[in-house]
Write a structure and sequence with these properties.
Chain lengths: ~110, ~120
């Protein structure tokens, strides 16, 4: 089965609020993790990534947290906007210099309420 | 930079026919490209890894004789779905790694996807 999964299939938040999307992974050999945003009918769009030697990384309005002890990954989106509505996937890459394809989680549909 | 295109964006074919999908890296060279498949409301599943100048590596359960992959140049990989059936209807997405940065970066650049409908 899949080694990466998500806790919640749908997350609804008010515009302007912060959102947190969670992801559990099971492969302790994974050394690179990525969050993607996918809008309907489009390919995945890179949001932010993190390597296993880090536990936190920040971007513009987004933060990824990695907890290797419990194999947990989260994406925090600050001050959500209507354009943030999409499906969000976490993905992992097994150790090996990125030569492997990615294993994707099931996805969380983020809905921004006006 | 780092743009990946796919052609066609949508295709409808009849059962039993073959269809070819192209994946191109427009502004970089890619020694490695990946093909994923995504069914409605599901996640992306890796089908195969395509390496320039060599045979593709297929994931378990993916029939290599049905999904033919050719990576003949550093900017083009093709996926041919042979003898297509309605169950092959899906969203096919490719990604590519930049040859110049692949030693230090794990990032993959994704194409916009191709919607295949087999009638």
């Amino acid at each position: 089965g899949e080694s990466v999964g998500l806790h919640l299939p749908t997350l609804s938040v008010q515009e302007g609020d912060n959102s947190i999307i969670n992801c559990a992974y099971s492969n302790s050999a994974s050394d690179y993790f990525i969050w993607y945003k996918q809008e309907s009918g489009k390919g995945p769009q890179f949001i932010i990534d993190i390597r296993s030697n880090m536990d936190k990384r920040q971007g513009q309005r987004v933060t990824v947290l990695l907890n290797k002890t419990v194999k947990h990954l989260s994406l925090q989106i600050a001050a959500t906007q209507p354009g943030d509505s999409a499906v969000y996937f976490c993905a992992e890459n097994l150790a090996g210099g990125g030569a492997d394809g990615l294993t994707f989680g099931k996805g969380t549909h983020l809905i921004i309420q006006p | 930079g780092a743009v990946v295109s796919q052609h066609p964006s949508r295709v409808i074919c009849k059962s039993g026919t073959s269809v070819k999908i192209e994946c191109r890296s427009l502004d970089f060279q890619a020694t490695t490209m990946f093909w994923y498949r995504q069914f409605p409301k599901q996640s992306l599943m890796l089908m195969a890894t395509s390496n320039e100048g060599s045979k593709a590596t297929y994931e378990q359960g993916v029939e290599k004789d049905k999904f033919l992959i050719n990576h003949a140049s550093l900017t083009l990989s093709t996926l041919t779905v042979t003898s297509a059936h309605p169950e092959d209807s899906s969203f096919y997405i490719c990604s590519a790694r930049d040859r110049l940065t692949s030693g230090s970066s794990y990032e993959q650049y994704f194409g916009p996807g191709t919607r295949l409908t087999v009638t």
